[in-house]
């Protein structure tokens, strides 16, 4: 079910889990704060190529905003989104993200994220190579393949099986040294789990509606 969030952008209500894909305070605002600012831009300050893993491709908003950011910064990005219950291209066509982000002429590019084939790399521009996989987060393992993890699964109370020590051990090992994991979640038990598998955990200001979010480092000296 399509819903409007506080900044005017759309989100989707998951009927299965009874939660929305984004914050009620603003879908694009949350994605910009948590994933683009605290994740992509943070790494782009020290390197001009960034490989991103997103756990929960969902509506495609994080991928679309990453693509736009890569072009604005002349950054090259390799992007892999994991999803096991994809939305339909018809659903994606109802979202107002291109308009809300000030790029209405990029609507077809946004839809392309949903229309391209699964399990294959697609060079969507000189700055952005995109792949999506129908792979459960629990089964994913790619040692030292990524610089940033966007951990955007539904909240621990909705999907506790995705917030386990085994999952975050795989996330840790999937990052290169000094790689980072960013997420909207700041629960104490979650942060203790991150530390158990080797992450150094940083608490930073959260997006509207949340006091804190989490950025975790691999091998922070």
Summarize the SSE layout with pairings.
Layout: E1 2-4, E2 10-14, E3 19-20, H1 27-44, E4 49-55, H2 61-73, E5 76-82, H3 89-92, H4 97-100, H5 107-115, E6 122-125, E7 128-133, E8 146-151, H6 165-174, E9 175-183, H7 188-196, E10 200-205, E11 212-217
Parallel strand pairs: 4-5, 4-8, 5-7, 8-9
Antiparallel strand pairs: 1-2, 2-3, 6-7, 9-11, 10-11
Helix pairs in contact: 1-2
Explain what this protein looks like in three dimensions.
The protein is an alpha/beta fold. The chain has a single domain, classed as Vaccinia Virus protein VP39 (Rossmann fold), CATH 3.40.50.150. Helix content is 30%, strand content 28%. The chain has seven helices and eleven strands. It has helices spanning 27-44, 61-73, 89-92, 97-100, 107-115, 165-174, 188-196, and strands at 2-4, 10-14, 19-20, 49-55, 76-82, 122-125, 128-133, 146-151, 175-183, 200-205, 212-217. Strands 6-7-5-4-8-9-11-10 form an eight-stranded mixed β-sheet. A three-stranded antiparallel β-sheet has the order 1-2-3, with no helix packed on it. Helix 1 (27-44) crosses helix 2 (61-73).
Number of strands: 11
Regions with little confidence, pLDDT below 50 for 5+ residues: none
Query: Can you count the helices?
Result: 7
Helical amount: 25-40%
| CATH evolutionary superfamily | Vaccinia Virus protein VP39
Number of domains: 1
Enumerate the strands of the largest sheet in spatial order, edge to edge or round the barrel.
Answer: 6-7-5-4-8-9-11-10
Outline, from the CA principal axes?
globular
What percentage of amino acids are in beta strands? 25-35%
What is the average per-residue confidence, as pLDDT, rounded to a whole number?
94
Q: At the first level of CATH, what is the class?
A: Alpha Beta
Rounded Rg: 16 Å
- Topology-level CATH name: Rossmann fold
Structural class: alpha/beta
- What is the H-and-E element order? EEEHEHEHHHEEEHEHEE
Q: Quick one: biggest sheet?
A: 8 strands, mixed
Which architecture does the CATH hierarchy give at level 2?
Answer: 3-Layer(aba) Sandwich
Termini separation comes to: 45 Å
């Amino acid at each position: 079910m399509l819903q409007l969030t506080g900044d005017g952008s759309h989100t989707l209500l998951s009927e299965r889990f009874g939660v929305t894909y984004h914050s009620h305070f603003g879908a694009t605002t949350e994605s910009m704060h948590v994933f683009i600012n605290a994740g992509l831009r943070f790494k782009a300050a020290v390197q001009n190529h960034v490989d991103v893993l997103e756990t929960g491709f969902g509506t495609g908003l994080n991928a679309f905003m990453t693509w736009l950011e890569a072009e604005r910064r002349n950054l090259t990005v390799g992007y892999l989104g994991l999803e096991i219950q994809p939305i339909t291209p018809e659903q994606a066509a109802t979202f107002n993200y291109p308009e809300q982000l000030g790029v209405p002429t990029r609507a077809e590019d946004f839809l392309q994220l949903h229309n391209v084939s699964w399990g294959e790399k697609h060079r969507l521009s000189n700055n952005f190579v995109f792949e999506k996989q129908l792979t459960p987060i629990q089964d994913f393992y790619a040692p030292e393949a990524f610089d940033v993890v966007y951990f955007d699964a539904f909240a621990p109370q909705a999907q506790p099986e995705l917030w386990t020590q085994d999952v975050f051990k795989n996330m840790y090992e999937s990052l290169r040294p000094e790689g980072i994991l960013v997420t909207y979640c700041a629960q104490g038990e979650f942060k203790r789990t991150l530390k158990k598998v080797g992450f150094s955990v940083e608490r930073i200001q959260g997006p509207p509606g949340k006091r804190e979010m989490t950025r975790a480092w691999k091998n922070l000296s």
